[in-house]
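[Automated response] Your request has been received and processed.

Submitted sequence:
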Amino acid sequence: MTSHQNTQTMKPATAAKKLGVYLEATPAEFQEGVVSRSELNELQANPPAWLQELRKNGPHPRPVVAQRLGISIAGLARGGITDPLTTEQIEALRQELPEWLAKERATQAEVRKETVRIKERDAERARRDENA
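Generated structure:
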């Protein structure tokens, strides 16, 4: 009995998400086709010029915008940012540092501190349980 491997494919939206780019800004042939796992790996390893340009200048999808601003995606929405932004627009926001962005950055810092605290607490409990 021989087993033949099926090629795993994904929708362009999934591939764009994995590549960290905004689907609507990708070339038409990317948007209209399907992407195999090996094609995705090749795009990640050797990004073509269009992918390099999108990653550098955007427009960037909300997760990338949020990451570059140091806030959550929900924080973006609370700040009224619902559309993709270019690198230039992100930099402008960083320079302006509107009140909502400063507040969201502070909130995100608190969330990170709390996550670390909980992780340390759980590790300490696990050590105590091992020694009990």
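Summary generated for your ticket: The chain has a mean pLDDT of 89. The chain is about 65% helix and 5% strand.
If you did not submit this request, please reply to this message.
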